[in-house]
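Repro case for the chain-ordering regression, as requested:
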Amino acid sequence: MRLLLCTVPVVLLLAATSMRRAEAHAFGQRYDLPLPLDLYLAAAGAAVAVSFLIIALFSARLGTRTFRTRLVLWQRPDESASWRILGHVLRAVGVAIFFLIISAGLVGAASPVKNIAPLLVWVLWWVGFLLFTALIGNLWPALDPWASLRNLALRGRDARPRLAWPAWLGGWPAVLLFLAFGWAELIGPFGESPSDLALLVLAYSLLAWGGMMLFGDAAWHNNADPFRRVFGLIGAFSLFFRTQREADRPLVLRLPGSGLLEAGTGRISDVVFVMAVLATVTFDGFSETPLWAAFLDWIARSQMLRPVLLGISSFGIGILDAIRTTALIVAPLVAVAIYTLFCALTSLADRAVTLGMVMRAFAVSLLPIAIAYHLSHYISYLLLAGQFAIPMASDPFGFGWDLFGTSRYVMDIGIIGARQVWYVAVAALVTGHIISVIVAHSIALRLFPSARAATLSQLPFLVLMVGFTACSLWILAQPVVNEPAIGNPPAASSAP
Amino acid sequence: MDCLRNFAFGALAVAIGLLAGATGPGFASADEMAFHLAVEGGEIAGGAPTLRVTEGDDVTIELVSDDEMEIHLHGYDITVVLAPGEAAAFAFRADIAGRFPAEPHDHGGGDHNAVFYLEVYPK
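-- result from build under test --
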């Protein structure tokens, strides 16, 4: 256990000491135009309107039943040879990509636009594969290279855990590791430096294998592995799903979001995990807004904070990174505080329902809005930066190879029009909002003893969801700005 | 519940009205757009301005700097070299919509603050 608790700060420290000016997503600038005011207002208005429509029309249990409609595509996939072959193929692909990332990172070119490792991790996997998981289905358990390599190494041998997972630890390691990963993505140098990225992947690999060896695979996956957790949650939203509720685990096609009714957040640490996901996704966009830039500027000019800032920079830590790190820790706490407040109001609807019950029940209902925001925020970035995959496939290490004859591919920055991006963003957020309201409503009907209490309980949640959607829209309506330079304390001749 | 339902339909009507009224930003379409910017100490007084044009415009952005520098317009991928006190210009047709930062070209590391932003709105 000590191993686990020590490794996170050590990795963070190692990274912090090699800190450079690190811009998240170093390669591939974002060229998004801010959402125009009228579209922004129309979407916000539609979100408010549909919220009340659903409250008014959906209170019958019939609605929930319709929402749960599903089509069984495959009753017993595990008995089929083709399903098993698909599993082997996915495991091979996962392991091959894992080795490609590490070898490219360690021996390939130092520039992130020439080395395939950052592209694979930050664009194709963390943005692209995450969206695939949200919309289509969760293939991560099959692709997961850490699990595959461990099973390969163990083949046939006894792998009983040496220790039982300490109950007091709950799912908190997954929360910490997820935040550490969020830090690596948004603040750390791993977007710019392929070799740092490869070292980070190796460090995490040792941690994951150590954890699985000590506590067993299942305990590690359920309590500490942030990727199993996040893909599991996001994948519960998707169209294709293997339900856990029946012995055969049939593959079903469902309405998007309805699987969230099965996705449990049984512990408070699971609830906090969801809040950490929501907060990180939102902070990513918020940190590009003029409001955030103005806040940083204010800090840089503040006489009161000056000694603190100078103190921080004397340790060799970038001030900007210190502020962003603080914000990344504060953001989930703010999310938890807001969520707790609204859950407290919700629990007033019926005396038999406690705050803890409400908090555990409703956390997943906010995920559809977050997924919609993630899609809106990243659609054009994914289509632009994703094009790097074409030349890099021919020259993954930046050695000047031309394996497939595509190494001279020139990016088409007009691949998706600004107007299309706006329409996708507005349509996604309004749809995500509708699904969130329906999910919350279905959960309320299950949790509260009477339909009346269930409907009443949803009023605070509607306010929370409209607020979250409006906040996401607001971020999309902000122009993307680069952060002001506050690495060095500002000179006396400040602009008026 | 009836009252709630009426309110809901009212709100929906408002939303539909708003959606119908959404017609994109009201920028007059102009064929030629010219800007003149003065750069002092690597930046423009008052902060990086946002230059707004419409897709298809012929854009000229003339710059005069008090110092030697290179400015790179991302996306359109154009670099302009500035000699102290001498005007130089970006001249191009804005055929791709988006928001593009123009940044000083790297001279041995350091932070990149945008000199200006170009916003090209779709027609």
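Ordering looks correct now. The longest helix of chain A spans residues 418-447.
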